[in-house]
Design goal:
This protein has one domain. The longest helix is centred in the C-terminal third of the chain and has 13 residues, at 172-184. It is built from 3 helices and 18 strands. Helix content is 13%, strand content 33%. A hairpin with a 4-residue loop joins β15 and β16. It has helices at residues 8-14, 172-184, 230-242; strands spanning 18-19, 25-26, 28-30, 41-43, 47-50, 53-57, 71-77, 80-81, 97-98, 106-110, 118-123, 126-134, 151-158, 165-169, 198-205, 210-216, 221-222, 226-227. It is α+β, with helices and mostly antiparallel strands.
Length: 246
């Protein structure tokens, strides 16, 4: 059976979370193939989980970093740090677990956004956004992305480095139309390998922050397992071609 392999940065964006049947979240395992579980080295993804929703740390540098003014009311508190304490690759994340945040770390809502989309926490003196990656109750992208009416432009970047801009959408009506298609798209919790042209879509938000998602036009999948209609892929291709170069 032939398997298609995700490519470049899009692979990291679309397949960053490798989820075993038991629900463990990890980037990779380093161990002898026939060795005991105790020999397994687990590289955890930077995640937290609350109320059944798993949030992944935002690593994009294409928007401003969170500041003290972004902190809303306390949302919850980390109960257990998984890294250094769990050595079982079959471990299933529980509410209150965090990969790297210490137990007792407060996690806050973000002003202007639903907590089902974005949270913020401090680690080593630095604030980090955590954005919903998997919500078992999500049926459409709007349940994962609270960005309706908050996107000022959409950058269409290379999948290879996520920063090289291949196209951009700035017309307010067109931006709103693209976002409406995304937010109305269904969510399928089962991810699939990328087949076809891939881009990184960067939603530049009104407050200066950004949300970046890998987009595979061949399979019609946006990162976070959002299934896009073929018309959206056609629109993105048009935007790339229509954007002046140089």
């Amino acid at each position: 059976m032939t398997r298609q392999r995700p490519r470049g940065l899009l692979f990291l964006l679309l397949a960053r979370l490798i989820v075993s049947a038991s629900g463990v979240v990890l980037l990779g395992l380093a161990a002898c193939a026939v060795g005991p579980v105790s020999d397994v080295q687990i590289d955890w993804v930077d995640v937290v989980q609350f109320h059944g929703i798993r949030y992944t740390a935002s690593t994009t540098t294409l928007g401003r970093a969170p500041t003290e003014s972004d902190l809303g009311p306390l949302f919850d508190t980390v109960q257990f740090k998984v890294a250094d304490n769990v050595h079982d690759p079959n471990y299933h994340l529980k509410d209150g677990d965090a990969a790297y945040l210490e137990a007792g770390t407060p996690v806050y809502t973000v002003r202007g956004y639903a907590p089902s989309f974005r949270l913020v926490a401090r680690s080593a003196g630095r604030l980090t956004f955590y954005e919903a990656d998997m919500n078992p109750h999500a049926t459409t992208a709007a349940d994962l992305l609270d960005v309706r009416g908050k996107v000022r432009s959409i950058d269409i970047n290379s999948e290879q480095d996520s920063k090289t801009e291949l196209g951009t959408v700035t017309d307010p009506a067109r931006v709103a139309g693209h976002i409406a298609i995304v937010l109305d798209a269904p969510v399928n919790q089962k991810s699939q390998a990328c087949d076809g042209t891939g881009y990184v879509l960067v939603f530049q938000l009104d407050d200066g922050t950004a949300v970046a998602h890998g987009c595979c036009l061949g399979t019609g999948e946006l990162d976070r397992r959002i299934r896009l209609p073929s018309a959206f892929g056609d629109a993105i291709r048009h935007d790339v071609v229509a954007t002046p170069t140089g």
